[in-house]
């Protein structure tokens, strides 16, 4: 039985801000005395110890006392989709191995936020995509998307794909990211509303561009001011469907 209680944070693309948003959400939920953990099932692009992997960043943002290799049991160096990055290291992983590796971590927390790799249709193993992992875990999903032009298309496609696979979508967060592009982008005033209108999934807030060094206190403050946590708290307390 896959006894996962949690929320899967996916994105419309790589680099949209899943790690920073996941870290900030977990920090804010833990500040409410909830024992929420974080899991990055597979990561690629850097090795543990570099300080640059998502697992290390998640631990830094949240202040969670875990070993990075427990947060991310599978790390591959090549900046490629996990399936190919693993192959370059001569490793072949299965979906069941990925899930089994996360179980001890999940058991230590009342609920976990799980950061995907890239977007929903990213190859994870020889025969599975990220969406298949979400399906197997039976958690709902939260989408992180860019704020600016193009986000309606990417977000609606992501919602539709998740729903086709029977995955419940809790909401979407638009992240300003680190580029200056949004400052001359008039679409940002209407994107959230249009996405809501065409798919009916709730907009949970806009995560601002952060200029200063990102520390836990500051990330908690940003979440409290900008993001609706109620639907996320609710999603985290629902047992995974298999446990019900
Ligand atoms: N709101 C923001 N303010 C400032 N910098 C940001 C913001 N959002 C993202 N960034 C920066 O943009 C880069 C990409 O963000 P992040 O790593 O969180 O994306 P991701 O979706 O997790 O990517 P991946 O697919 O590699 O996991 C990082 O360097 C991050 O620090
Ligand atoms: Mg990331």
TrEMBL record:
Name of this protein: ATP-dependent dethiobiotin synthetase BioD
Coiled coil: none
The organism's place on the tree of life at top rank: Bacteria
EC number of the protein: 6.3.3.3
Enzyme class: ligase
The keyword tRNA processing is annotated on this UniProt entry: no
Cofactor requirements of the protein: Mg(2+)
Pathway(s) served: Cofactor biosynthesis; biotin biosynthesis; biotin from 7,8-diaminononanoate: step 1/2
Annotated organism of origin: Paenibacillus taichungensis
Keyword Nucleotide-binding: yes
Classification via Pfam families: AAA_26
Ligand binding (ATP): 15-20, 54, 115-118, 175-176, 208-210, 215
One GO MF term: dethiobiotin synthase activity
HAMAP family assigned to the protein according to its UniProt record, in alphabetical order: BioD
Catalysed reactions listed for this entry: (7R,8S)-8-amino-7-(carboxyamino)nonanoate + ATP = (4R,5S)-dethiobiotin + ADP + phosphate + H(+); (7R,8S)-7,8-diammoniononanoate + CO2 + ATP = (4R,5S)-dethiobiotin + ADP + phosphate + 3 H(+)
Listed InterPro entries: DTB_synth_BioD, P-loop_NTPase
Keyword list, A-Z: ATP-binding, Biotin biosynthesis, Cytoplasm, Ligase, Magnesium, Metal-binding, Nucleotide-binding
Family in the record: Belongs to the dethiobiotin synthetase family.
Catalytic center residues: 40
Function: Catalyzes a mechanistically unusual reaction, the ATP-dependent insertion of CO2 between the N7 and N8 nitrogen atoms of 7,8-diaminopelargonic acid (DAPA, also called 7,8-diammoniononanoate) to form a ureido ring.
Binding site for Mg(2+): 19, 54, 115
Binding-site residues, substrate: 44
Cell compartment(s), UniProt: Cytoplasm
Assembly description: Homodimer.
Xref: PANTHER family: ATP-DEPENDENT DETHIOBIOTIN SYNTHETASE BIOD 2, DETHIOBIOTIN SYNTHETASE
């Amino acid at each position: 039985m896959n006894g996962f209680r949690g929320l899967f944070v996916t994105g419309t693309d790589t680099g949209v801000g899943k790690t920073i948003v996941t870290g900030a959400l977990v920090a804010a939920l833990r500040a409410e005395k909830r024992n929420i953990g974080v899991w990055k099932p597979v990561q690629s692009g850097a090795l543990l110890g570099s300080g640059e992997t998502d697992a290390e960043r998640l631990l830094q943002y949240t202040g969670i006392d875990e070993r990075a290799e427990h947060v991310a049991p599978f790390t591959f160096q090549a900046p490629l989709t996990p399936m190919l990055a693993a192959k370059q290291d001569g490793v072949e992983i299965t979906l069941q191995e990925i899930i089994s590796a996360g179980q001890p971590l999940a058991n230590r927390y009342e609920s976990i936020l799980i950061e995907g790799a890239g977007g929903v249709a990213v190859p994870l193993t020889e025969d599975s995509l990220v969406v298949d992992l979400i399906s197997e875990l039976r958690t709902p999903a939260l989408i992180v998307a860019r704020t600016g032009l193009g986000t309606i298309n990417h977000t609606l496609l992501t919602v539709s794909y998740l729903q086709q696979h029977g995955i419940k979508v809790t909401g979407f967060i638009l992240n300003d990211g680190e580029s200056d592009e949004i400052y001359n982008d008039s679409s940002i005033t209407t994107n959230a509303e249009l996405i809501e209108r065409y798919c009916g999934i709730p907009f949970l807030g806009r995560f601002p561009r952060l200029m200063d060094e990102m520390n836990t206190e500051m990330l908690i403050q940003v979440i409290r001011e900008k993001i609706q946590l109620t639907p996320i708290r609710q999603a985290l307390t629902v047992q995974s469907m298999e446990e019900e």
